[in-house]
Amino acid sequence: MELTVCICTHNRSRYVRDCLDGLRRQTVARHRFAILLVDTASSPDNTRELQALAVRHDARLIRLDRAGVSLARNTGAWAARTRFIAYIDDDAIPAADWIGSILHAIVQPGRLPALIGGQILPKWEAPLPVWWPASLRGVLSIIEHEGVGEYRTPAVPKNLEPYAANIVVHVLSLLAAGGFSGSVGRYGHSLLSDEEVQLAWTLQDNGYSVRYDSRIVVHHQIQARRLEPEWLLTRLFWQGASTVLTRRLLHQPEAVWRELPRRVLVAVLLAPAALIPRRSTFLLGARWRLAYAGGFIRTALGWSATRAAAQAATLPVAA
Fold this sequence. Notes:
Helix 1 packs parallel to helix 2, helix 7 (229-249) runs parallel beside helix 9 and helix 8 (253-270) packs across helix 9. The protein folds into two domains: 3-226, Spore Coat Polysaccharide Biosynthesis Protein SpsA, Chain A; 229-314, no CATH class. The protein is an alpha/beta fold. It has helices at residues 13-24, 44-56, 69-79, 98-105, 171-176, 195-205, 229-249, 253-270, 284-300, 305-311; strands at residues 3-9, 33-40, 60-64, 84-88, 92-94, 113-124, 148-150, 166-170, 209-222. The two termini are 34 Å apart. Strands 1, 2, 3, 4, 5, 6, 7, 8 and 9 form a nine-stranded mixed β-sheet that branches. The protein is globular. The longest helix has 21 residues, at 229-249.
């Protein structure tokens, strides 16, 4: 066994089925990788479906009673019995050569990679609206860059970051770094993010190889309900909060205070845009910037985004 594939899920057994079907169609022999499902506090119906899927696909199922994707991913790392673990979102479908490309990437000459981020291509459940800002495709967990290289070097675009919808991590390096932080990352339906970014930069800052490889491909099923102005504004608010938390976790509090005056100025100048109904697309460019500034400012000034995200985990909001 050379690789563990970890799928963390919460109440989305339908997507897990598609992901597992993709793993069944891999070009490498099944005995070369293990499958681990980590179920975080799903409903009884979803749990029963996951149990059936685990049996059908020869996967190990671990059930956690608490929501939290960072907790789930760390649980997967501790349960892995292989050197590397590949994390894929439950709503992503691996390309047929996904496992093969991972196995090829981890044996390339040079430094042993601690983390490899791959390409994430969209599989639309509904057409992308014309009003959607081109600069914000990334908030849908889309990475379309072609190439290979170390993150935060000229080899890849400046703002390219790994997304846990498609990352491969060296297990011992992950555990030595303290795993994914519970201060960031999704809780149920909340939209707190950046746990993989915090891990990647922690590893890289400690001298490990952290790189991007576009040959490792998954297809991310973009849910139709995400393609609404209200979801986008909520997502940007939580991204502002996530940015503050991540910088603090990376011991960069000064970066937060340097940026805070600019975010306050944005919030003051764009405050009237908050009067526009959240479902409207009018002045959306101003409104998503205002939403991001709001999350950034509140968290910088002491609001506990982590506690709020945990409390929101059971609320019926867009995932």
